[in-house]
Amino acid sequence: MALRIYNTLARxxxxxxxxxxxxxxxxxxxxxxxxxxxxxxxxxxVAFDVVVRYLRYAGSTHGGYDVLYVQNITDVGHLTxxxxxxxxxxxxxxxERRVEPMALxxxxxxxxxxxxxxxxxxxxDISPRATGHIPExxxxxxxxxxxxxxxxxxGNVYFDVESFxxxxxxxxxxxxEQEAGGRIEPGAGKRNPADFALWKSAEGTGHLxxxxxxxxxxxxxxxxxxxxxxxxxxxxxxxxxxxxxxNIFPHNEDEIxxxxxxxxxxxxxxxxxNGTVLVNGEKMAKSKGNFVTVEEALKxxxxxxxxxxxxxxxxxxxxxxxxxxxxxxxxxLERLRISLTNVERYLSLPSTSGDPGGAAELERLTEAHxxxxxxxxxxxxxxxxxxxALFGLATEINRLVATATEQTPEGxxxxxxxxxxxxxxxxxxxxxELASRAASAENDITGPLVELLLGARQSLRKxxxxxxxxxxxxxxxxxxxxxxxxxxxxxxxRAV
Length: 496
Description:
The chain is an alpha/beta fold. It contains 14 helices and 17 strands.
C-alpha cells in the first residue's frame, strides 16, 4: 500500500510522491524560545517525530526514505500580535526577567531540546536559528522588492498581498472578504491592511535586537524567517512542511505567498498540520494560563506515558488533556509490556518436544499484525490504527504463552519473533520503549521525595543555613536530580 498524506492545501489525502525518488526534504515550524515548552508543544514534537521515523523506517513502499529533517528555532521577530504589531515575544519576556534577549534564548533553547530528548524525539538534522540567517532573509526580501511583490514604507518592508492572486489558497480565505482593519488598522504605511511585514524598522524604538539592512536598522518579520531557512537547506520546493493547525493563517499562508512569488515554484508539495491539545474545550496556551509544562508533566507522569498519550490520537485530531487520560495511557502501555513479560516467562519454562499447534498460527498472525500496523501508518500516519495492531499482536502472544507450563522449540521461536517485531515497530516507528521497566508515575515515589527534600532545603535557606542547603542540592545532583533556583521558586528535573 502506498503512503497517503492528508494535504491541507488540497483538503484531501494524496499519494505521497517526493520531488526526488527515495529522498524527503521536510521542514517543521519550530519553537519560539521565550518560555518553557508545554504539552501543546509536545503533541507537535511527537507527531512529526513519528512522521520522520516512519518515513525512514518504512517509506518508499516500506523500503525507507533518506529524510533531511529541518526544524527552525525562532529567536527574533515573532510578535505578540499576528497583525505585525505588538512587541517581540522574546524581547518582551527578556524585559520582564531583566536579562539579555540572547541569554533568554539560550535558556529556553536548552529547555526545548531537553523536552524533546526526554520525550524520545529524534533531533532534527538541522536546527537553524533565525538570528543566524539574517543575510538570507535580506536577500529574499530584496528579490521580492525587485519582482514587484514588496514595497518599502517608512523603513518597513511589506509584502503586497494583492500581487499574489493565489493568496489565501491554504487557509481558503479570500482576500476580498477580509474586512479592512481585520488584521491591523489601515495606515501604518501599508497599502492594504492585509499586507504583512517582511522587515520592521527599529529606528528610534530602542529595539534590543536589530541589524543593518538596505532599508535602515531593523529586524525581520516572523514569516520571512521560515521561507529563508527552509529554502536555504531544502531547496525551493519542499516535500513536506509541517506545523500546528493554528499556524495555517497567517504564518503558513504568508510563507507560501512570499516564497512562491520569489521562486515562481510551489513552496511545498504537502502541508501537514497537527491538532491542538484542549483543556476543557479550549486550546492549551500560555496566553490562557491553562497550560502544563513538559517538565511538570514528566515529573507527574513520566515520559513513556506522555508519549503514549500523544500517539494514541491521530496527529490531525485535537486531544483532551486530563490527568486521568495520561494515567490511562500509562496503563495501556503497561498492558503491552505485560505481553513481553509473558514471553520472557515462557522462554524460561522447561522445554518439551512437539508443537501444540499454536506456534505456526502465532507466526502467521505476527506478520498479519505487522501488515496491519504498516497499513495504518500508510493511511496518513494513523497511529491509533498502528497501536491497535500492536494490541492485537499482544493478545495473540498472551493466548499462546500466558498460561503455558512448558515451552516447545517451535513455540519459543514464534514467541521470540513476535516479541522482536513488537519491540521493533514500537521503538523504531512510534518511539515507544516497551522494554523499559521504569516505574509508572502512580508507583514512582521519586517525585514526592524530591519535593519533600526541596521543602527541607527551603527551610534551611530561610534559616540562613546556606552551606547545608547547598550540600543537599549537591547530593541530589549526585543522585541524578538537578535543582534550579528560579524567581518563582526552586524546581527540579531528572538529569538527561
